[in-house]
Amino acid sequence: MADIPAPIGLPPHAQGLKHHFDDSAQQLESSTLGMWVFLLTEVMFFGGMFGGYTVYRNLYPEAFASTSHFMNVTIGGFNTGVLICSSFTMVLAVRAAQLGQKKALISFLVSTLALGCVFLALKYVEYHEKWVDHHIPGPGFQYADPRYFHQAQILFFLYFAMTGMHALHMIVGAGLLITLIAMAARNRFSAEWFTPVEMIGLYWHFVDIVWIFLFPLLYLIGHTS
Amino acid sequence: MTHQAVPVKVYAAVFLALIALTISTVAISKLELGEFNFVVAMTIAVIKASLVVWFFMDVRRSSSMTKLFVGAGLFWLAILLVFVLSDYLSRGWLPGPKWW
Question: Do B17 and B55 belong together in one domain?
Answer without folding.
Answer: yes
